[in-house]
Write a structure and sequence with these properties.
CATH architecture of the largest domain: 3-Layer(aba) Sandwich
Protein name: Flagellar motor switch protein FliM
CATH topology of the largest domain: Chemotaxis protein chec
CATH superfamily of the largest domain: CheC-like
GO biological process, one term: bacterial-type flagellum-dependent swarming motility
Distance between the termini: 75 Å
Largest sheet: 6 strands, antiparallel
Shape: extended
Radius of gyration: 34 Å
Membrane topology: Peripheral membrane protein
Subcellular location: Bacterial flagellum basal body; Cell membrane
Helix content: 25-40%
Keywords: Bacterial flagellum, Cell membrane, Cell projection, Chemotaxis, Cilium, Flagellar rotation, Flagellum, Membrane
Structural class: alpha+beta
Length: 333
């Protein structure tokens, strides 16, 4: 290991402390000879690097934004979801950390092995249910006596949200998430061994005036096949692969060329008062600001693009392009 370099001020302070007796040089030597020991808990084995955890956090940042939009549309109320934390802990610790009665959804994510758990805090779950049933979004904890209709409504809401999870993970792997189980007691869920490492993504959630957490538990067995794709190197290489090839540009250009646009040729404009408009009658004349000898303007999606002159073609009104407007206000002269 490289030696640590001290600044001149630190050297002066160290020499002053030794000379004044505040620090013993022999004690410094003893401390240097002591072995550096770091405690390692085998029950909390860290199987993901910080780089991989950051990648998972980035994926779920996108998922949180998509989920906010989805729930806002479904519940017609203010919804804000953001990533609060991403941790790797033993599965047993995750089960102990969530309420004894809560809303748990178990998803399979083919082609990946294993299953994921989404835990919706009761405050959030019942605020959603109240909104779906026409209420103001008040949260009432009644996990013990969910009716069959309430269970079906909540399951459908959570199941339809899976498209957002699929889109968020599409940058790494194409998954097909399917809701397999709906449970209220975490003790009945034993997806992996108690000491198995899981990644827990906690989403801070606000629905109307109710707040709570959505916790996503992803076992190591689910992420193991795609761990190499969670590194920064993969993301950088993936970005390079996304660079457009010439044939792709040509294909995009052809598609754009076939896009339809609104064209309008304007004979002129005029301003009148509301009183004048109310008293208009047959054979009244409105003076336009367009001189009869000047070309008309052809607008493309409300933007002036060409100078044209009016006429007829095959018994239909038409305009003939005279020149193109090269930018700026065509009336400036």
């Amino acid at each position: 290991m490289a030696d640590e370099v001290l600044s001149q001020n630190e050297i002066d302070a160290l020499l002053s402390a030794i000379s004044s007796g505040e620090m013993d040089a022999n004690e410094l030597k003893e401390e240097e000879n002591d072995k550096k020991v770091r405690v390692y808990d085998f029950k909390r084995a860290l199987r993901f690097s910080k780089d991989q955890i950051r990648s998972i956090s980035r994926i779920h940042d996108n998922f949180a934004r998509l989920l906010s939009t989805y729930f806002s549309a479904q519940l017609r109320t203010y919804v804000h979801i953001s990533v609060a934390s991403v941790d790797q802990i033993p599965y047993e610790e995750f089960i102990r950390s969530i309420p004894s009665k809560t809303i748990l959804n178990v998803y399979s994510v083919e082609p990946l092995d294993g299953r994921m758990i989404f835990e919706f805090n009761p405050n959030i779950s019942y605020a959603m249910l109240d909104r779906m049933l026409g209420g103001k979004g008040t949260s009432v904890n009644k996990v013990d006596n969910l009716t069959e209709i309430e269970t079906t409504l909540m399951s459908q809401l959570f199941e339809n949200a899976l498209e957002n999870l699929q889109e968020a993970w599409s940058s790494v792997v194409e998954i097909d998430p399917i809701l397999e189980d709906f449970e209220v007691n975490p003790q009945f869920l034993q997806l992996v061994s108690p000491n198995e490492t899981v990644v827990v993504v906690s989403l801070d959630t606000t629905i109307g005036e109710s707040t709570g957490m959505i916790n996503i538990c992803i076992p190591h067995v689910v992420l193991e096949p795609i761990i190499p794709k969670l590194s920064v190197h993969y993301w950088m290489q993936n970005d390079k692969k996304k660079e457009r090839k010439p044939e792709e540009y040509e294909s995009i250009s052809k598609n754009i060329e076939g896009a339809k646009m609104d064209l309008s040729a304007r004979l002129g404009e005029s301003q009148i008062t509301l009183e004048e408009l109310m008293f208009l009658s047959e054979n009244d004349t409105i003076l336009l600001d367009q001189p009869i000898d000047d070309p008309l303007l052809l607008y493309v999606d409300d933007h002036p693009k060409f100078h044209v002159q009016p006429g007829k073609k095959k018994h239909k009104l038409a305009v003939q392009v005279i020149d193109e407007i090269q930018g700026g206000d065509p009336n400036d002269g």
